[in-house]
Amino acid sequence: MKNGILKDKTKEIVAAYAFLAPNLIGFLIFTSIPVLASLGLSFMKWDLLSSGPQFVGFKNFIELVNDPYFLKYCWNTVYLMASIPLSMTGSLLLAIALNQKLKGTVVFRTIYFLPTICSGVAIFMLWRLIYNPNFGFLNTMISSFGDLLGLKVSGPNWLTDETWAKPAFIIMSVWQGVGGYNMILYLAALQGVPRDLYDAAEVDGANSWQKFWAVTWPQISPTTFFIAIMSLIGGFQAGFDQAYIMTGGGPNGSTTTIIFYIFNNAFNWYHMGYAAAISWVLFLIVFVVTLLKWRFYGKNIHYA
Amino acid sequence: MGTHIDSLIRDEMKKEREASGTAARRKYLLAVTEFKSRSPFKRAAQRSILFILLLLGAISMAAPFLWMISTSLREANQVFVDNRVWWQEWIPTSFVWQNYLKVWEVVPFARFYVNSIVVSVLITAGQVTTSAMAAYAFARLRFPGRDKLFFGYLATMMIPGAVTMIPVFILLRHLGWIDSYKALILPGIFSAYGTFMLRQFFLTLPKDLEDAAKIDGCSYRRIFWHIILPLSKPALATLTTFTFMGSWMNLMWPLIVVNTHTKYTLPVGLAYFQGVHGTDWVLLMAASMMMILPILIVFLFNQRFFVEGIKLTGIKG
Fold this sequence. Notes:
The structure holds two protein chains of two kinds. In chain A, about 75% of the residues lie in helices and about 0% in strands. Chain A is mainly α. Chain A has a two-stranded antiparallel sheet with strand order 1-2. In chain A, a hairpin with an 8-residue loop joins β1 and β2 (about 55). In chain A, α4 (about 85-100) runs parallel beside α8 (about 160-175) and α6 (about 120-130) crosses α12. Residues about 300-304 of chain A have low confidence and may be disordered. By secondary structure, chain B is mostly helical. Chain B has two domains: about 1-95, no CATH class; about 100-315, MetI-like (MetI-like fold, Orthogonal Bundle). Chain B has 16 helices and no strands. In chain B, α5 (about 110-140) packs parallel to α8. Chain B is flat. The termini of chain B are close together.
């Protein structure tokens, strides 16, 4: 009898490792070992071409702290995250509107979701055309609006002007994100607010505004916090595709983000060690945000 | 945690309401407030305003797409024209459907398309399969080191892709795999996130069926195949959709590991197209339309999975 149980246990362990094997092998080769390798690489200097990697201690990190470009690109990355509060506010308003059970809600939801679905190269190309200073759709709209008011206005050179390139990216991000995942999360959160809380507030004579701040807002605050943290984590790692397609990181480096700098260092200039060092700094930043999330939200890991 | 607070609040409010008067009086008060705040006229007006606002928003969401379509159908010299009547901004003077055919001749677009389909399908199939198998082991089987190993998976989920990207590139270069389909596909097949998500879903499945099957002497392989997988269709569909979309749109990885045209996927191909014919907007827009079309179709038919999937990954934990 005891022997049988032991046999069953062995069988279970063998089965478990058999199920696990394909994923685990891939996980070791393409994730866990590279993580360690990358840490090692960040203490080395290597251009891929010469004899081999050369240990340089903390030199990469010291260089990084004094690298004016790196600091500038960090600032760019943070600046571009201005789109986060904007699109979150938009998502919440949209979710509230779509939660009123109007006619055509499903159609609206689909349309608002389209920009999120069609992200990527094609959409960035479209926006490069939209931002064309002379004939782009946006500046055409701005000038015809000006004509309506009897003014001669012309829009800026969005993507080639250092002051406008980042706002251009922010507008595009808001357009892309406002009706997307966050809106769906907010919608689900709103539907989860218990009905009797609203009834009770109504009995107390609360108007819609008061009901929102006294009932809705506190009830959905976990969702707000979750979305904010996830957007921050994503935001620090964002900005490659759009910069690559629309501006090449310019004008004058004003749309280069951390990830774009890592890419350039590693795959254009072959500064492998330096690129690895930047990627670890990026990891550190993301890790601090994750700690914040754990601190306030418990250790439930959602996506990312 | 959230639900606990909810129930506390609810209890508190219940007590308060009971204290504030009889049920009849409460009903009366509710009816009064209902009447005050929702006179039919005011309500209809509010709803119409809301509807109009939503409509305006939807138009600004859709406008860029419509402009994209109209640009893709113009004559090449009709993209940039001064002082047009406003509707001519939106409707081409003549519809040039040949633009869509021309794209396939100017660059090896068919090749990019096939590459993208092959790469995305293989990555998706591989990732869903390996993730589901590992998730089953993590969710249902007992083996030494399980929890530590799972914690290892979780820990890597917060590491930015940029960290692993460089050593993986160096590894593939050592193996001589740069500029091959293997380099495009293999690293994408293994996902800690997919494993995590499916494990969470498997944990919610009832265990009775499996226990019964085990007593009948069913093997783990058959339990996995005949019980777990059929019960997990929504989660599998969600992972499939997201993985496919992610790899269809992925620009950076193919850019890193591939350098001959014949192995380009659509995003890299499109970027290359832009580099060569950067001002040929008509063709660029036609090509872009054709790139997003499959995703659009997948989305329109599987909307449910998107919405459910977002809720699944976002709300539960």
